[in-house]
UniProtKB/TrEMBL annotation:
Residues 46-76 are annotated as: Disordered. Keywords: Cell inner membrane, Cell membrane, Membrane, Protein transport, Transmembrane, Transmembrane helix, Transport. It is a single-pass membrane protein. It comes from Microbulbifer celer. Its main location: membrane. Residues 301-450 form the GspL periplasmic domain. It comes from the Bacteria. This is Type II secretion system protein GspL. Belongs to the GSP L family.
């Protein structure tokens, strides 16, 4: 038995006058009652189950008053239900709650509960809109269809979510026999009998009706369709029938007429649970009723959400840090630009937009911008052709109105200054030395180019 798989069973009221349900847990040897609260016990009762005008309607109204007392008494019966971390539970529902049959269903309609319902509508006693359907493929387009009241399934799903039980699979009792792997099976469970045909049909009946129902279910007759016979994997008279639970001599004799009877020893529940997989088909908690397990740390999406949030915060911190770094670098670049502007244009106050201010200076006079560019080009050619290591530009000022460029240079001697003046002079511009001052090391001179 899988130690992490817990088997629970929901039992319906034993008589029509009883209210609510009870819950049992399999411990490997026997079923034990589980304590449930009044809300769970009364969640599956519905006064509409007894139609108005029937003989039992008035008595049902009188019994409804005692429903709360019956549900409250259920709280004091049985041991509390506790789950260890990592456990997963399979809940068996009363077989009388679930209708089961075989029908051909196109692939496109299998995932649409209402579409499946309308295909088998003529075989149902309830309105399709009030039922939830599951469709499990058997062979080709042949499917095993189950139907259960939406009211009951709504109540079950709400209670599972309220109590935070790790119940992810809910199947009718007879569906547990599908663990036999396509074989016919009968589970004798006290006064009830659960039957399963390997092709995918099951039901729960009173044990007194076992033989006639088994003959109808397992005996292939002339009206049985070829598709169902093929899906049954040998549903003829020689097909083996696995019988679990204590069988009486009369029952065994009657079943042997239908096929070879293979009686399984030991506890039926333990044997079936060892063979059953929670991933098997037939889970009624599907679609909108699917239950997703959480963990001790929270739901499954908690860790990915934390990882995404951490990445977002890290990226945000990186962007903020990069923004602050580039802001500081931009401040240093702005200071350096203003210092250079004051060297080039002494006495002029730099504005916020230095680029626009310099462009304005270049356009102050007609042709001033082009003169300044050509003068700088001439200065660059002289600078690159001479000993630039001995020359140092101390200041540069351009007068756009006059088209004059005034340089303050520092040279090794006066001869070097004269050489620069001669090189700057050409057919287009004229350079002249305005002033020269001797320094402790070298000479400083002012040159005008126009």
């Amino acid at each position: 038995m899988n130690q992490e798989l817990v088997l629970l069973r929901l039992k319906d009221a034993p008589t029509a006058s009883s209210a609510g349900v009870s819950l049992e847990r399999w411990d490997g040897t026997a079923w034990h009652s589980v304590a449930i609260d009044a809300e769970f016990a009364g969640a599956f009762t519905d006064e509409q189950d007894v139609p108005p005008g029937t003989v039992g309607h008035e008595s049902h109204r009188e019994e409804a008053g005692s429903e709360t007392e019956s549900a409250a008494a259920a709280e004091n019966r049985g041991a509390p239900l506790e789950f260890e971390p990592g456990m997963q539970a399979v809940l068996l529902l009363p077989g009388s709650w679930v209708w089961n049959g075989l029908e051909t269903v196109p692939r496109a309609a299998r995932r649409q509960s209402s579409a499946v319902g309308y295909i088998v509508e003529e075989r149902l006693a309830e309105d399709v809109e009030d039922l939830h359907f599951t469709c499990d493929p058997v062979a080709g387009d042949l499917c095993s269809i189950m139907a259960i009241s939406q009211n009951k399934l709504d109540a079950l799903h709400a209670q599972i979510m309220r109590l935070q039980w790790p119940v992810t699979v809910a199947i009718p009792e007879y569906r547990l026999l599908s663990a036999l792997g396509g074989e016919h099976g009968i589970w004798l469970d006290g006064a009830r009998a659960h039957l399963w045909q390997g092709s995918g049909i099951g039901m729960t009946v009173d044990r007194s009706l076992l033989l006639p129902i088994a003959e109808s279910l397992f005996g292939a007759d002339e009206e049985t369709s070829e598709e169902i016979i093929e899906a049954s994997a040998g549903s003829d008279e020689s097909a083996p029938i696995a019988v679990l639970g204590p069988v009486e001599t009369l029952e065994q004799g009657g079943l042997s007429q239908l096929g070879r009877v293979e009686a399984q020893t030991g506890q039926a529940e333990t044997y079936l649970l060892e063979q059953y997989s929670p991933a098997a088909t037939g889970n009624l908690l599907s679609g909108a009723y699917q239950v997703v397990l959480g963990t001790a740390e929270g739901p499954w999406w908690r860790v990915p959400a934390i990882a995404v949030a951490a990445c977002f915060v890290a990226q945000l911190v990186f962007f903020v840090g990069a923004g602050m770094y580039y802001k500081v670098q931009a401040g240093h670049a702005e200071d350096a630009a203003q210092q250079l502007f004051q060297e080039i244009f002494p006495g002029v106050r730099p504005q916020a937009d230095l680029r626009r201010q310099i462009t304005g200076f270049l356009n102050q006079s007609r042709g001033g911008g082009s003169d300044f560019a050509r003068q700088l080009q001439q200065l660059s050619s002289v600078w690159n052709g001479g000993k630039s290591s001995e020359l140092k530009l101390q200041s540069l000022r351009f007068d756009g109105t006059r088209g004059e460029l005034v340089l303050q240079l520092r040279a090794a001697d006066l001869a070097q200054l004269d050489s620069v003046v001669n090189k700057l002079s050409n057919s287009q511009f004229k350079a002249e030395l305005l002033a020269a001052n001797e320094l402790e090391e070298g000479v400083s001179g002012r040159i005008r180019l126009r």
